[in-house]
Amino acid sequence: MNPAAGYAALAAVTAATLLIGVYGLRISRTTGDFYVASRTVRPWWNASAIGGEYLSAASFLGVAGLILVSGVDALWFPIGYTAGYLMLLLFVAAPLRRSGAYTIADFAQVRLESLPARRITTLLVIAVGWLYIVPQLHGAALTIRITTGLPGWIGSVAVAVVVCLSVMTGGMRSITFVQAFQYWLKLAAIAVPVIFVLLRLSREGLPWTDGGAAFAAALDPETNASLYRNISLSIALLCGTLGLPHVLVRFYTNPDGGSARRTTLIVLGLLSLFYVFPIIYGVLGRIYTPDLAAGGADSTVLLLPGRVFDGALGDLLSALVAAGAFAAFLSTTSGLVVSLAGVISQDLFRGSVGGFRLSAVLAAVVPLGLALLTSSQALAGTVGMVFAFTASTLCPLLLLGIWWRGLTAPGAVAGMVTGAVLCGGAMVAGGVLGTAARTVPAWLEQPAAWTVPAAFLVTVAVSRLRPDLAPAGAAKILARLHTPERPHPRERRS
Amino acid sequence: MTGEPAAGASAPSSVPSAESSPAPGRPPQRVRVTAARSVPASAAPYTVSRELDEQTEVGEVFIGSLIRSQLRLALVVGGGFMVILLGVPVLLAFLPVISGLTLLTVPLPWFLLGVGVYPLVIVCGVLYVRSAARNEQRFLDLVDDA
Questions:
Q1: pLDDT for B4 beyond 50
Q2: Which of A362, A356, A450 is nearest to A33 (CA)?
Q3: Which of B33, B66, B102 sits opposite A353 (nearest CB)?
Q4: Which residues of chain B have a CB within 8 Å of the CB of A353?
Q5: Distance from CA of A162 to the nearest CA of B (A)
Q6: How far apart are the C-alpha atoms of B131 and B137, rounded to whole Å?
Q7: Who's near B123: CB < 8 A, 6+ residues apart?
Q8: Chain A within 8 Å of B40 (Cβ-Cβ)?
Q9: A421 vs A229, A238, B139, CA distance in Å?
Q10: Which residues contact residue B56 at a Cβ distance below 8 angstroms, ignoring those fewer than 6 apart?
Q11: Interface pTM (ipTM) of the complex?
Q12: What one-character-per-residue DSSP string does B28-68 give?
């Protein structure tokens, strides 16, 4: 595509992000604003912001790429990404909002009354966040390479720098505006080009699905889908969404538990709407860009408009898609950096704003190093691994902490460590086997189906072993998590 | 409040209240922004659980039944969704005939997984939000009557 259009698109997105961030700085005055936007964000704003933050490189580029390569089995990724929010709505949204904690580490400390449990949770949150940022930066590298022809590392560095600047200046409140804007930008950027493409194909009598040929078997013979793989992936995505740090912190910006639920419901609608489009790209890609299946399938969304249109319109549509992709990396990365910075600064720097800014840099620089040292895999797949890890570690803590009075600090720690060791071990073993022999058994490649139950079992068993260690205030805290708020004359006005 | 860093125990929610009464016509005073190291109790919204603290026995019964009914609701909705969702691949694995059916050239598995699941997700969500709010309202009514 035309590099000039690419430069213009990326510059426009970056400028809009920074401008909204600076605008946010002027109204971001208190600690509450900085960390959780004073908990007064309206459901529609908040839902758009959650959508904007959640739709990452994996959703924007990865889903279409996977559909191109492996066909119908790839549809499980968008299903899992969306249904994860249903699980969040059912089991976590309102109680978590009522917990009154800023971060998941705070939740662990309040619920378990234990500093060691807090420390372990903090470490896991940081690990999850770093692992999740890496594929975003890989996506940025890919986009820069394709749209401008520059070396990919410039994209990774640019995203990290822009995110650090906007997070350090604005905090959570401005980030909420930025993220909400970026959901609608992403939706427009992925929907408008594909609508143009479909219109043109109909007018010229070109096939949409090639008489069903687009739905034929996997283009890449190496993908060996199985029932186990699909079920394990669903478990990873459904349970993993619960524990993602940037997802959790968003729920604290709702005014109360009921609005946290309404927000989540809107998010379900927004995500369902969005995922229609990557699926269409994937199907069209099987006819118009099948060469990408051999390598670089993640660039399907970026290249498809240019394959159907040439000239100025092709450049314009390609630039729009590139802008949306860049917005995806920026918003997910900044959401992660904000929540990681919140966790790091509270545990390391006692929660000062200076510490928050330093933590933001720390939260972005480490994954930047990792991204520059590693090469990009299939984006949706790498992100799926992070979900499996989260599902095996933070999900048992949250679910049992919210619903089971008998959870003890040793039980929670044992469960998290078990999940981290099993799932992390499977990821490392799978990676080693993958480079050595290229055949990875399904149970190593998609470990969630056995690591998540194992983590739950260990958590419950260790808690049951010494029921006397259950925190004294557990009943009181559960009551706080589950009883509805009521307008109160004294505290009404905040 | 000016100059002094807020003490570790002070709640962030107390900051807006200090700021909310500026002299008329002047911008609000600058305050140093810090966060409490652990969770401030007053950051939580006012909940009925506090109201019930004094009358523990009745409160415990009410809250216990609220938690159980919310958990039951979540498990029923979530379980129903999972059965339908995981039913699709199981059905496809044991009845491969289905994969051959098409709808406007779109094979049925693509249709079910690419389009059909999303309305189901939203319906489950709406059902849950309504029922959960109803459970909470019933609980509030009970507390008021007691």
A1: no
A2: A356
A3: B33
A4: 33-34
A5: 23
A6: 10
A7: none
A8: yes
A9: 21, 20, 42
A10: none
A11: 0.82
A12: PPP---B--SS--GGGSPPBHHHHHTSSHHHHHHHHHHHHH
